[in-house]
Structure formats: C-alpha cells, structure tokens
Amino acid sequence: MNIHENARMTFHGRVLLVKRVRDAGWRVADAARAAGISVRTAYKWLARFHEGGERMLHDRSSAPARMPHATPSGMVEAIEVLRRRRRSGPAIARELGLPRSTVGAILRRRGLGACRASKSSRRRSATSGSIPANSSMSI
C-alpha cells in the first residue's frame, strides 16, 4: 500500500512503538510522544497488536467491504450497450431512469466517458488538406 504524505506511522514505526511499550518498558505517553502521535492513537495500535500480533499493524484498505446501494451489474451492462450504440449520457439516463451523474460515473469508469466521433463522420475543415488541381480558385 502507498503511504500518504501525512501519515505519522509506517508499519515499522508501529512495531517500534509496540516494542518500546512491551519490551523496553516505556510508558504509552512517552512512546506516543517519541513517535509524534497522540496517546489515543498509540493505544489503538497497541490494541490491534494484542488482537493479532504484527500482522495487525499493517495498513488497512480504505475500500468499503460492501456497497449495498451499488448500481446492479445488469444496469451497468445496459449503460455500456447503449453507449456503444452511440447514445449520449443524458439520453441513456432518461431511457433507464437513472441520474445523469450515475450514468456519467459508470461511463468514465468503463473508459467510455467521451463519445468519440467515428472516422466516417468527421468533416474536413476548409483549411485542411490540399486544394484540388482543377480548382478555379485563384491564390
């Protein structure tokens, strides 16, 4: 896991905190002060250590364990199918009765956020390309 820049403690710092309190006989307040954390946080790490040893001192994922209100997978697939049929996000939202923000978020996650024009529908601008040889335009 990546350590964010404001993190006070890494895994190794947490292990050191536990060793200072358990093995070296430091008071929790002194060990917390030395680590630059609050006493409450020190007690939290000590409690986690007592629950399951060193493995409990590793960073935990912040991802939710479950998402009870997640958009059903069938609906996500329907959104993708409609987008591949060249439908706009607001049109998909109206057809399926979903908020535009939900449809937009799902399309971005799937890499379908921007509706790209196909090669056959692109128009050439008047300044692009070369002028035909039989043109009567004077330059």
Describe what this molecule looks like in 3D:
The protein has 6 helices and no strands. With 139 residues, it is mainly alpha-helical. Helix 4 packs across helix 5 and helix 5 packs across helix 6 (100-109). The longest helix is centred in the first third of the chain and has 14 residues, at 39-52.
String of helices and strands: HHHHHH
Low-confidence stretches: none
Q: How would the global form be characterised? A: elongated
The level of helicity is 40-55%
Give a summary of the structure in a few sentences.
This protein is mainly alpha-helical and 139 residues long. The protein has helices at residues 11-22, 28-35, 39-52, 73-84, 89-96, 100-109. The mean pLDDT is 85.
Task: Give the SSE map.
Elements: H1 11-22, H2 28-35, H3 39-52, H4 73-84, H5 89-96, H6 100-109
Descriptors:
mainly alpha; single chain; 139 residues; elongated
